[in-house]
User: Fold this.
Amino acid sequence: MKGSASVNRFRPHPWHGLEVGPDPPEVLNAYVEITPFDLMKYEVDKISGYLRVDRPQRSSAQPPTLYGFVPRTYCDERVRRLAPAARRGDGDPLDVCVLSERAIARNEIIVRCRVIGGLQMIDDGEADDKIISVLENDYVWGGARNVSDVPPVLVERLQHYFLTYKLVPRQRSKARIARVYGRAHALKVVRAAIADYDDRFSPSASGVARRRR
Assistant:
């Protein structure tokens, strides 16, 4: 293709093959798995990198924002240390919600987003943080720099969704949100998730693991 100095000949794995973002931990790439129009729970297959159906949504709740993950992040020990009530990280890439004024109805896309805060969610003892971000250069939300810059009702909707999207009748929920935090702590969580990824997946980490075996 003309005008491109470097082109991937094959589709990169969305978790391991995409860049974390142009200016981490503040400006990130988000790989979108679910849109506000989805009543199915989609999730990237960790082996193939293709999107798969995880489960139909049992409740009538719909995600209030774009929802996906940050490439080359991993929630392990460093992320757990930032969530005192958690026993471990959830072993997944870092989740991210992206506020956008214009409706985006497609998943399996990459959007550039700016971190403004997050939800410290504990799910069955695991740190399962949800980073809150805004679409970079969005005409309505793009100027937000902290979670306090967006209407509280948007954060309330996110909390309600994540506290109810796994609910099963007559069963007690294992998920809770310990707190809503602002930009400063969110940046710490992103840095921790990037470091956890490097610890787990970098070539040097693989070499250490082989030597230990």
